[in-house]
Amino acid sequence: MIGRESGVYKTSYEADMALYPLPIARYAALASLACLALLPLALDSHAMALVNLMALAAIGAIGLNILVGYTGQVSLGHGAFMMVGSYTAAILSARYDVPFWLGIPAGGAMAAAVGAFFGIPSLRIKGLYLAIATLAAQFIIEWIINHWTWIGGGAQSTIYVPTPSFFGWQIDSESARWYMILPFAVLAYVAALNLVRTRIGRAFIAVRDRDIAAEIIGVNIFRYKLLAFAISSFYAGVAGALWTYYLKIANYEHFTLLTSIQYLAMIIIGGLGSVLGSVLGAVFITLLPIVLVYVVEGAARLAGYEYASVANFLANLRLIIFGGLIILSLAIEPEGLYRLWGNVKRYFRQWPFSY
């Protein structure tokens, strides 16, 4: 029997509040981090490109889950806040020669300021009405970037970014980009885990569960709602800035309303109110279209069809299967992939007993 807690005694408050209080959990976390650092040695360029996309999506999904999953504030403007971070980093690097390691936090800070501004209506409205307000933010920010020449640069609102470098080391391959993204992804994950365990995180959860009761016991509702919007937008801005340095281009078409909906799907499928669930949801949504392409292509070849003849069918079928899997996952496990992972861990912890 796997008894992870057996023989582990906590004799101080610090030990009880540790992020990984069990030795085996700490060893697993360190081993996972080592495996992530060594991924370029085991994967080719195509596989590393997929891993990079999953890491970028995970950063943005964690930020949105802090707002939606932990604070209960609905947002349809996450793509717009990523757009703010993207263009901020692109302007600083392309026009003022700011290095990427300064452009990324600057993009996050600007997105946090814009997100806090658009979070002001959350004091008076909630639910569907707040979703419409954040949807307005998506269109307002997109319009500003398209029509303010100083921001978007005019033609197609595109800004090209030079290849990022770190003290002379050119980040021009998928493996190099992984080492650019990985520190920010790990920091975002660990910071979110710690945030939700602090007084601020407990206030977020209180606002989500019953905002009136939270206000009665002394929680400043307006302050923590704005703070949730700012933190979530900071994560979005960092993800948008990383996306810009990854592609070496900033373009509003990368952060449309569809992007915001995809990030909502990530945290719903992964599990609302779960940091790990955000990562699982990001991996699922990123890999699902690619897996569907391989499956449909294989089926077409077995049936004797060429890929070109089924390309349009594939495009529509991907959307149908994508939506169907989302509905199915929500019907089978509404708490997402994180709950499924928890069930697996619980099974091995209790085995061979059933209770």
List the helices and strands and how they pair.
Elements: H1 13-16, H2 23-37, H3 39-42, H4 45-70, H5 78-96, H6 100-118, H7 128-147, H8 149-152, E1 158-160, E2 165-166, E3 169-170, H9 174-195, H10 199-209, H11 211-216, H12 221-247, E4 249-251, H13 257-270, H14 275-302, H15 311-332, H16 336-350
Antiparallel strand pairs: 1-4, 2-3
Work out the number of β strands: 4
Give the SSE order as H and E letters.
HHHHHHHHEEEHHHHEHHHH
Mean pLDDT: 87
Global shape:
globular
Please state the second-level CATH architecture: Orthogonal Bundle
Our estimate of the beta-strand percent is: under 5%
- The largest sheet has its strands arranged as 1-4
**Structure annotation, total helices:** 16
Summarize the main sheet.
Answer: 2 strands, antiparallel
CATH class placement: Mainly Alpha
CATH topology: ABC transporter involved in vitamin B12 uptake, BtuC
Which residues form runs of ≥5 with pLDDT under 50? none
Cα separation of the termini: 13 Å
Structural class: mainly alpha
Radius of gyration: 22 Å
